[in-house]
Amino acid sequence: MTVIPKFFGPDLFDSYTARDQAMSALRTMQLRAMQMTDDNKCHKFIVATDLIAPPSPITDTNTCSSTANAADNPDYLSVTLDSSRTDVTFDADNAAGSTFTQMEFDDLGRPILNSGSCSTTGCKITVGEVAICISGEGAIYGC
């Protein structure tokens, strides 16, 4: 019998860790969108190569800006990758292969079609060697 470790190197370990943290942040924002259904609430994420976070700063009356900064957001809503310590990056693509940088949830937890490119066919955020899939109906899962 041969035993092979689940993680073969630090980049794979970093990929799984970042993916799990990002899925938790996305699911938290999705739940907030389903519980706080007032129209003036912002339930959007900015996706950059080294950051997934809500617009900065996140407040109850956020205007949903297009910039994000992890320092202005709580740790449970943002994931930052340190490029000096890992080669892992975020890459967000829709089903057609087009890159997007923003995604937002409606009050049913589904991705909003006109915010980013996460449409009814879903989208994927690649995190190093693993990925997060988001279906058009709002299912967020590792893929």
First-to-last CA distance: 28 Å
Structural category = alpha+beta
Shape: globular
CATH architecture: 3-Layer(bab) Sandwich
Poorly predicted tracts of residues: none
Order of helices and strands: HEEEEEEEE
Bin the strand percentage: 15-25%
In CATH, the topology is named minor pseudopilin epsh fold
CATH class: Alpha Beta
Number of domains: 1
* Number of helical regions: 1
Helical residue percent band: 10-25%
Q: What kind of oligomer do you see?
A: single chain
Question: What is the makeup of the main sheet?
Answer: 4 strands, antiparallel
Radius of gyration: 15 Å
Overall strand count: 8
Structure write-up:
This protein has about 140 residues and is an alpha+beta fold. The protein has a single domain, classed as minor pseudopilin epsh fold (3-Layer(bab) Sandwich). The chain is about 20% helix and about 20% strand. It is built from one helix and eight strands. Strands 3-2-1-5 form a four-stranded antiparallel sheet. The longest helix has 26 residues, at about 10-35. It starts with 9 loop residues before the first helix and ends with a strand.
Helices, strands, pairings?
Blueprint: H1 10-35, E1 44-48, E2 51-53, E3 79-80, E4 90-94, E5 102-104, E6 123-127, E7 130-134, E8 140-142
Antiparallel strand pairs: 1-2, 1-5, 2-3, 4-6, 6-7, 7-8
Features:
143 residues, alpha+beta, minor pseudopilin epsh fold, 4-stranded antiparallel beta sheet, 1 helix, globular
How would you summarize what this structure contains?
It contains 1 helix and 8 strands; from the N terminus they run αββββββββ. With about 140 residues, it is α+β, with helices and mostly antiparallel strands.
